Amino acid sequence: MEELYDEAEHWQLNTGEETIHAKRMKGKWRSYKWYANSFWLILFLGPYLRWGDRQAVLFDIPNRQFHIFGVTILPQDFWMLSLTLLFFAILLAVVTALAGRIWCGFFCFQTVWTDIYAWIEDKLEGAPQKRRKLDKAPWNVNKIRIKLTKHLLWLVIGFLTGISFVAWFVDAFQLWADLVSFTLGSTAIISIALFTVGTYVLAGFLREQTCFWLCPYARIQAVMIDNTTVVPTYDFHRGEPRGRVKKGVSEEERTTGDCVDCNQCIAVCPTGVDIRHGQQEGCIMCALCIDACDSVMKKLGRPTGLIRYESLDALNGKESRPLLKRPRVWVYSIIMTAALLGIGYGMSTLDALEIKVIHSRQPLFVLQSDGSIQNKYTLKILNKMTGDIPAKISISGIDGAILVDADLVTTARHGKVTPRTVFVRVPKKLLKQETTPIIFHVEGQLGEELLKAQRESIFIGPRY
Ligand code: SF4
Ligand code: SF4
Fold it and tell me: What is the pLDDT of residues 95-132, one digit of tens each?
């Protein structure tokens, strides 16, 4: 224990004036954090996944269409995107209400990138005490070499983050080809530069200050967390009165609680929080203090869990209300289910080819010299595929109806709405009423795939 107390002498609480050099320690929660960090590999590897002849997930802003595997989403379907965002916002609220800032502690890109930057720093500069010493040391060749390597690595990660972000919006392989041939467009260059600098500054320098001062989520989480939320909590019943381990005093003789005031929980905290003061805004709930305290307890032969995931109610011996008796859980569940149903409906009704029919109002109909009645329509054919489709138009629903120039094929341009004006003629004697339902069909072949769409409209004749 002596070496831990020595270290504690040099430990300071975070006041925002100094860089926090958190100690890195192995443990169960540290491993979980690495697993969670690896979630972000999706950002780096995702753009290289192919689907047929194109990128599997491509947010093609210039052509205003999103490709997600076999599905193409055009601006007309963006309401689904709103539902998806709503679903994840509520999911975040549910997770926060139940288990605190899991997102902050384990998944948020700010904390994940900061953690990776700090890991590089730890590998190059050593443990926190060495790092602080190096910061204060005068510049010499060794310090320049270490600092230069660290900042270069940070910049490389920032640059790769920028490239990976942009690769979701353009073809990833083409992006690299343009990059190595120095033919990148200005938008891509500016985006990559902004991401490189942003990542470097936020993860390398601002670190936990971003959570304190810039992130709005840190502010609003207070209304989502209550006494029933299970979060990393210091068991003050067991820990207090805290007191240092005294030589010659056996476990049976001691009059202090289990906390030995070693400050290890603060030493590993990436935001410099002392969790023994209760829940605080600065705590991102990464649970690393649990690992630190457990390792101390194991060394002393005391039970682990002095800091553990626990709700305040449970800590105070109150019975926690069952989940289904909490109105909040019901409200969240209803909104999430509604959002999921909406997304499911949208996905199941997404067609590769869509048709809209607008009946001309002026005039409603024209009497032809051969005695037939003619109606004019504007068809809008939406092609969500990646290639142009030769679309054939036909009608049904009225016996004897003729589509003028029916053999003409319209090229439905990919990712666009193609308008086409058509005329339908029906011999007057075949019309039995003023308005008769008529169905427009559009059919086209793209490769092996036969695509079809239809839309009902009305045919208008004179009054009877
Ligand atoms: S107090 Fe514990 S859980 Fe909170 S941020 Fe610090 S190490 Fe993570
Ligand atoms: S809570 Fe645990 S890690 Fe923190 S000071 Fe007390 S014994 Fe040390």
Answer: 998 899 999 999 999 999 999 999 999 999 999 999 99
* Measured distance CA(57)–CA(49) in Å, rounded: 8
Distance from Cα 286 to the centre of ligand 2, integer Å: 16
d(CA 204, CA 157): 11
Question: If DSSP codes are grouped into helix, strand and coil, which group holds residue 282?
Answer: coil
Lowest mean pLDDT among 59-63, 197-201, 430-434, 454-458: 59-63
- Whole-number Å distance, alpha carbon 48 to ligand 2 midpoint, is 46
With a 6 Å cutoff on the Cβ, whether 211 touches ligand 1 is no
For 182-189, the CB contacts below 8 A with 24+ separation are none
Ligand 1 atom 4, closest CA: 283
| Closest C-alpha among 24, 1, 26, 21 to residue 11 | 21
Domains in the chain, start-ordered, CATH in brackets? 353-460 (2.60.40.10)
**Spatial distance between the Cα atoms of 462 and 203, rounded to a whole number of angstroms:** 73
| Tally of CB atoms within 10 A around 256 | 16
